[in-house]
Amino acid sequence: MIAIIDYDAGNLTSVARAITYLGYDNGVTRDVQQILAAERIIFPGVGAAGSAMASLKQLEIDAALREAFQRGTPILGICLGTQIILEYSEENQTPCVGLVPGAVRAFSPDIRDANGARLKIPQMGWNRISPQQEHPVLAGVKTSDEFYFVHGYYPDPSRPEHIVAKTAYGIDFASVIGYRNLIATQFHPEKSGRPGLAILDNFCHWTP
Amino acid sequence: MLSKRIIPCLDVREGKTTKGIRFENNVEIGDPVEMAKFYYEAGADEIVFYDITASSDKRGIMIDVVRRVAEAIFIPFSVGGGIRTVEDMRAVLLAGAEKISVNSAAILNPDIISQGAKAFGNQCVVLGMDVKFVGKRPEIPSGYEMVINGGRKPMGIDALEWAQKAESLGAGEICLNSIDADGTQDGYEIPLTSLISSHVSIPVIASGGAGKPEHLLDVLTRGEADAALVASMVHYGAYSISEIKSFLHSHGVKVRTTW
């Protein structure tokens, strides 16, 4: 079974619906034993880092995630889930789970595009990704494919080898992070149409 | 670089889609779930549902529509209309919508914005604004006034001041509807859109007046909108989403061209 972690951080039903649509057995859970027993783990989330980490700690899911990561269970982070696998978030000055070295930073309020136009924060909408390395979970993604982003903070892994793809929004930030059995997207694959579903499908039979 | 979004708007009454012209004489044109699937496959970037069912005892019908839409499409969609409390928001979000939009309820009770943002995150809370041009006067310095009840009731609130206040309360996006342009198909109200969009840092969706692709080009460039709502021009088959996007792309507007 694929465990979709529920920690009071936003709408998990859309992730579960996409996985069900693709035909994979899944369950939304906050039970540590179920999470540790799962074949795969999806770690989604929207909202703020501070309350998300407080909730993860209270449910003892942060420790379960570290253990599953050490055991080699394939883990997919999505959006806030991708941010709080890093060590620290500038959002609410929050120490995070720390599976991947690096921090989460706020977009600067005066970021501009290549033409000098002021960019809105949060980034909300469709943008492309530029792969920095090959990864099985991104198999079949075309350079013209776009993905749905909603975020005011961005992941900034300290080691370049953990950056699987980048996206331009005023700056080039890491929109896909990969480290061993972990892959994590800042965008929402469950809301990105066909290319997003392809990424979810790839994850569901990925053998790291 | 972020794409400009093209967003079909579906008015839903008692579980069926309608299209209002100046908010009156709505005619039934189809099943919302089928229409959502159609637009999802046609390349819409997002879909807005507006529930015009007036009575609260029929809210369950809309929740069921939201649930069935969420099983069928894998792009974001929002739901507005009749949302007055955090519990209303929760029901719609749990049924599978990405965002909820509040309009008159937020004018009457601005705290709903901050309560929703706190409970679900700013990105979930869209401020719907119905705006009418009334000319500048001391209490309406921008010349644009907030109205409710489909434009019939002026509220004595300046549209620009309200947009900025809503942003500070935690609204994550604004869906800006010009009552004067709505239903005309003569083009979006460009000065209004540009005024609001340049004075807030959150994305602005332009609404009201779309009749041809040139109107979208205008509001996404001169109007500084981040997204454009379309209704009749696509519902009745005059233009496809793909035609609109090709037109915008050929005029240098970044749009999502593969899906």
Task: Summarize the topology.
The complex is a heterodimer of chains A (208) and B (259).
Chain A: E1 2-5, H1 13-21, E2 26-29, H2 32-37, E3 40-43, H3 49-58, H4 61-71, E4 75-78, H5 80-83, E5 88-89, E6 94-95, E7 102-106, E8 123-128, E9 130-131, E10 146-151, E11 153-157, E12 163-169, E13 171-179, E14 182-185, H6 193-204
Parallel strand pairs in A: 1-2, 1-3, 3-4, 4-14, 5-7
Antiparallel strand pairs in A: 5-6, 7-11, 8-10, 9-12, 12-13, 13-14
Chain B: E1 5-13, E2 16-21, E3 24-30, H1 32-42, E4 47-51, H2 59-72, E5 77-80, H3 86-95, E6 99-102, H4 104-108, H5 111-120, E7 125-133, E8 144-148, E9 153-158, H6 159-169, E10 173-178, H7 190-199, E11 204-207, H8 213-221, E12 227-230, H9 232-235, H10 241-250
Parallel strand pairs in B: 1-4, 1-12, 4-5, 5-6, 6-7, 7-10, 10-11, 11-12
Antiparallel strand pairs in B: 1-2, 2-3, 7-8, 8-9
Helix pairs in contact in B: 1-2, 8-10
| Proper CATH architecture of chain B | Alpha-Beta Barrel
Number of helices of chain B: 10
What's the Cα radius of gyration of chain A?
16 Å
Percent of residues in beta strands of chain B: 25-35%
Q: Whole-number average pLDDT of chain A?
A: 95
- Major beta sheet of chain A, specifics? 8 strands, mixed
Instruction: Tell me the radius of gyration of chain B.
Output: 17 Å
According to CATH, what is the class of chain B?
Alpha Beta
Which shape of chain A, going by the Cα principal axes? globular
Note the overall shape of chain B: globular
Distance between the termini of chain B: 17 Å
| Number of β-strand runs of chain B | 12
**Helix-strand sequence of chain A:** EHEHEHHEHEEEEEEEEEEH
Percent of residues in helices of chain A? 25-40%
The mean pLDDT of chain B is 92
The succession of helices and strands of chain B, N to C, reads EEEHEHEHEHHEEEHEHEHEHH
Work out the helicity level of chain B: 25-40%
CATH 4th-level superfamily of chain A: Class I glutamine amidotransferase (GATase) domain
Number of individual domains of chain B: 1
Total beta strand runs of chain A: 14
